[in-house]
Design a protein that fits this description.
homodimer; Quinone Oxidoreductase, Chain A, domain 1; Rossmann fold; seven-stranded mixed beta sheet; 22% strand; globular; NAD(P)-binding protein (chains A, B); ADH-like_C (chains A, B); GroES-like_sf (chains A, B)
Chain lengths: 384, 384
């Protein structure tokens, strides 16, 4: 077989000195410089691969099918040498001149690993697949073999049936302690995690307050059962919570000021599940755990301090950090047994926004950072 | 019987403008103006009471035996009209011209309540007994009848066998999730709560790191089993935790910067139990819950914001607010069944510093605020 194109998305430059203001970026850890298509990342078609003959060195060759564009990718675009600690990255960030990576699904096209034969589909947590059409993995690569529900597309497996779904499912099961009649508040409730949480809460008999930033998102949240929806850009969160709260469970997808406002409006014994800022910080911090220690404070400088933590004892609150990297393995079997079937049947609803081709990655990265995407952003790299 | 003196400690003036610097007050919510004996509070002997004839109006008359001087009393000395929100009090603060109140033990000398007969001893949570020699309570007063262990003195029942002990006991049972071999860090480890926590942790097989501010306190912490003790005034907390940690359980008695430093040095799945600032804030906030809402933010202005809460998801932390007002009732039976006997046998060790007479209250209030007391401060008001 002749060599074929192996298109790649190369990390070309740290996004610096560019744009500034965005409501999406409020309360978030990253500096507000957007990744610029063609500049921060570059789509490159110069590489080729002969899938029939390329040396696998004991590993396996995967053809990428779908890739997930998640907000946290931006957090891996930080310069480890940056003078400003709030902009500084760590050793696990993207390398200039190399393809970026993230969550995705692919199909094995050739393999020297007996447990991972040709034709199997794999889902990767982090560093897989690299954003390229074909990737050779070492035998030690931690990938999960997944089988597709006949009524779902592979794209769902990086969204509601992937990391975002696992975040909602694992965090809820582990920490929510939900009781019927309680009040949930969730921010970015139209996102892949937030919308999943809304539905888990409604199934548990809770009253759901949910916020988002566009009328379209409010309508979607209503359609999946949220009782009270509001646009956080035009409606004061404090006023809503004072009227509709107090809040028994806060699923925090944004952190910062909204967390402080919510802490003021908690019920006794409320549970606070923090993620969001997480969404950015998780991978920056998780991946650096082995090297940890003194340097850690540098990673934190960019975060908005929490002022109302004294509410914790005033109200006997419990606050939990939701880290999908640790929850996903614990709940994986239950999740895959239960969730894809419910997504296929429509019992759990989801949305996604597909773009086709690796050449679209730069645009979608920017849209996700600006919040102009309308649903979970997915790149369809190839049909099978 | 002739009337007898009913000495009282009157709240005379808000402590303001007496600015002062104190390491004790770092990270704490109150302004650093100390209560001045004879000025903030005044001991008054002008009142008399005829214990045999005074009208009880269906209530009962208590002779005060011991009173507890706790740090949080200072937080009730705030002016509800103060312009600076960080100094402002709420409606539950002490009233100018009236006796202060707090925790104490007394004996019923006359009663019109069948369940609370003469001769029984009562322990009061808050607003009992007022700091006076005799107090008439309404029948609805929420007091607990307690019986003294023959080998303990009543003073212990406002310390290790009272609110501080209940804080440690309830918080530990409810939230610590301790496993042998884990590492505990506790601040103000020589205090009545901290020293109790150290011993609970050692009994559970943990390694204990404990901090305090004097050599005498370090020696005491060693004597009750702490493995690593250090003076936070002369030793860098971060350096100790980097060497001896990471921390699996942090019992936070101080909040603020030390909480942030500890968050940087937590193990995965660590539990953070926050109180301390609590110690001040609890009553300010708990008591105002019914009136709550918009004004709440004003109470918080004085607190040090927490910068490293992003560690919550990075490390899958759980953070719990320890509120003795809610934990004490839940654990009361177990606590009184178990703890006084262990205190009497020496299985749990405690310290206390007694002062004799209500005229000493002003001096002891100041000492507790300055941190110059050497152990749990107790006022012996009367022998039986």
């Amino acid at each position: 077989m002749a060599p074929v194109r192996n298109g790649r998305v190369i990390f070309n430059a740290y996004p610096e000195g560019k744009l500034a203001n965005s409501t999406l970026l409020l309360n978030r850890s990253q500096p507000a410089e957007y990744p610029i298509p063609g500049e921060t990342t570059v789509y490159d078609e110069s590489a080729q691969i002969d899938t029939a003959t390329v040396a696998l060195n004991g590993g396996f060759l995967v053809k990428t099918l779908v890739l997930s564009i998640d907000p946290f990718l931006r957090n891996r675009m930080r310069d480890p040498q940056a003078k400003d600690p709030s902009r500084r990255g760590n050793s696990q960030g993207y390398k200039l001149g190399e393809p970026i990576d993230g969550f995705g699904v692919g199909v094995i096209v050739r393999s020297e690993v007996p447990d991972l034969p040709e034709g199997k589909h794999v889902y990767g947590f982090i560093r897989f697949p690299a954003f390229q059409e074909y990737t050779i993995f070492p035998p030690s690569a931690q990938l999960r073999i997944i089988e597709k529900h006949p009524d779902l597309q592979w794209s769902v497996y990086v969204g509601a049936a992937g990391m975002p779904g696992q975040t909602a499912y694992g965090g809820w099961k582990e920490h929510a302690g939900a009781k019927a009649g309680e009040v949930l508040f969730v921010t970015t409730g139209a996102g892949p995690v937030g919308s999943f949480v809304i539905q888990l809460a409604k199934q548990a008999g809770l009253k759901v307050i949910a916020s988002a930033g566009t009328e379209e998102k409010l309508a979607f949240m209503k359609s999946i059962g949220a009782d009270v929806v509001f646009n956080y850009k035009t409606t004061d969160t404090r006023a809503v919570l004072e009227k509709e709260g107090p809040v028994d469970i806060y699923w925090d997808n944004v952190g910062g000021d909204i967390l402080d406002v919510t802490l003021e409006n908690t019920a006794i014994y409320a549970r606070i599940l923090v993620r969001a800022t997480a969404y950015y910080a998780l991978f920056a911090v998780l991946t650096v755990i082995p090297q940890l220690c003194g340097a850690m404070s540098g990673y934190n400088t960019g975060y908005v301090p929490v002022k109302n933590l004294n509410m914790a004892y005033a109200r006997s609150l419990s606050l939990y950090g939701v880290a999908v990297a640790r929850l996903a393995p614990i709940y994986a079997e239950r999740f895959y047994d239960e969730v894809p079937a419910k997504l296929a049947s429509g019992e759990i609803k989801y949305t996604e926004e597909k773009s086709y081709g690796l050449d679209k990655v730069g645009d979608v990265l920017l849209a996700v950072q600006k919040g102009t995407n309308k649903a979970k952003a997915v790149i369809i790299v190839a049909e099978e």
